[in-house]
């Protein structure tokens, strides 16, 4: 997965399907595939990708609110690391991977995700 400037296309829309308390499977509207950590990796730097939905822990994410913001941490349930834009890059095509969660996410904002959109589609 990579970040791009918002364009409103289906490739940038996701459906959040509840899988538990604050736990979701995140499905891309265009591809129908689920976000997952590649190979169910647990190491820092493991890529966040789209893959065929299979209901695995590597395809389930905890949405953890970040206090004082409208943002959330996306935490894969198999590793409980945090999804982040690698290198805190701001350009298009910057890759998304998991990394150790920061003690203060407001210091490392590349781990804070803003979710917006119609109910069910964020």
TrEMBL record:
Organism of origin is Nonomuraea thailandensis
Name of protein: Ricin B lectin domain-containing protein
Q: Which residues form the Ricin B lectin domain?
A: 11-98
